[in-house]
Amino acid sequence: MSLLFLILIDNSVSFRTTEICFMSVFVTVGTTSFDELTELVTSEPILKILETKSYSSLLVQYGRGHHQVKECNTAGLKINGYRYKDSISGDITNADLVISHAGAGTCLEVLGARKPLVVVVNEKLMDNHQFELAKQLHQDGHLLYCTCSTLGSTLSEMDLQSLEPLPAPKTNKFGEDLTLHFQL
Amino acid sequence: MSCIFRYFPPMKMAFLLIIGLLVLFVIRLCYVLFHLQEKPLKALKSRSVLAVAGSGGHTTEIVRLLSSLPSTFRPHSYVVATSDKMSVTKIESFESTEGSENKFTLYKIPRSREVSQSWGSTIITTFHACLASFPIMWKSRPDILLCNGPGTCIPLCIVALIYKVLGICATDIVFVESMCRVTTMSLSGKILYPFANRFYVQWPQLLQQYPNAIYLGGRLV
């Protein structure tokens, strides 16, 4: 998020400062193909919702999808897109909101970066076990969870302040347990 | 059948020998499986770990699990599917943060099953992967085989069990079910549940189906 302070001098020589926030949305589908989401998120209705929520830029990582998101300005948002990067952690860090597929690794990476996350389930992959984690994290209040058909209402009604941060994993317990078992 | 044995006694002997060896193998297998959950008898100064990498988040999880182990769990070696370049990058990046004095080994193996591959052809590719596992396990002979669910781990675990029954090495299988498995077990988990020495789950819901699994109170990665 970048803050721009404008110092305005009016006729009575008083100073006013105005804070302008440029909030950005990052959409990621990992290594999957999820054209339904990338097309939806760059469509007018969704862009309008994002604009009313004060987002001014949208970056889409579209993975294996056929729908390529090109650089443009639409409905008051600066839009750009790419297929893959070696690491999306920089784009996650720069985002104020992340919208992603239900990939377990992505969920953990975004929640680990303490960013608000909306997970969109790809209904064409209903037997994909990766839903389990996103569903559980949603039940535990760590992220928002929806389908393409409910993304609009989820974004309109979202209260990102109500999301709980994800607690750190107990990785050290694994090391301790194994050390105890193997008597090292 | 009896006339063959009358005229070819050596065949009868060979047949009896094969049956005898199979019976011995089964008895030894039962002994190994019966003693799976016990602590190792030998106290060693260190235990080598062979970790199985996999696509998606599997390698990320494996690397995080390894990072929690003290340096007595060394040396590290890894098995990576031949088509998996991303895992090699993750492993090299992890090992470079662990210190340049720690050497590690990378073994390549054909994939047992691609996503959505037919089950008929999976039998053939798994068999091919099993054949490739024999020399890997022979060279490596790790104390611990660490896996978290990619299909790549099945042939290695099968070979580890065969070698254990034959007394070639005493590799313990440590299986950690992926953290994205909340209510259902992976296929690899279902297969290895009866054969693993330590079987960990990261969500308590799985204990209902797998009561002998170990749950340490939360996610491990």
From TrEMBL, chain A:
Entry keyword Ubl conjugation: no
Keyword rRNA-binding annotated: no
Organism domain of life: Eukaryota
One annotated Gene Ontology cellular component of this protein: endoplasmic reticulum
Location relative to the cell: Endoplasmic reticulum
Gene3D superfamilies (UniProt xref): Glycogen Phosphorylase B
EC number: 2.4.1.141
Domain Glycosyl transferase family 28 C-terminal span(s) in chain numbering: 25-171
Key words, A-Z: Endoplasmic reticulum, Glycosyltransferase, Transferase
A GO molecular-function annotation: N-acetylglucosaminyldiphosphodolichol N-acetylglucosaminyltransferase activity
Pfam families noted in UniProt: Glyco_tran_28_C
GO-annotated biological processes: dolichol-linked oligosaccharide biosynthetic process
InterPro entries according to UniProt: Alg13-like (IPR039042), Glyco_trans_28_C (IPR007235)
Enzyme class: transferase
Protein family per UniProt: Belongs to the glycosyltransferase 28 family.
Protein name per its UniProtKB record: UDP-N-acetylglucosamine transferase subunit ALG13
UniProt organism field: Phallusia mammillata
Lineage: Eukaryota, Metazoa, Chordata, Tunicata, Ascidiacea
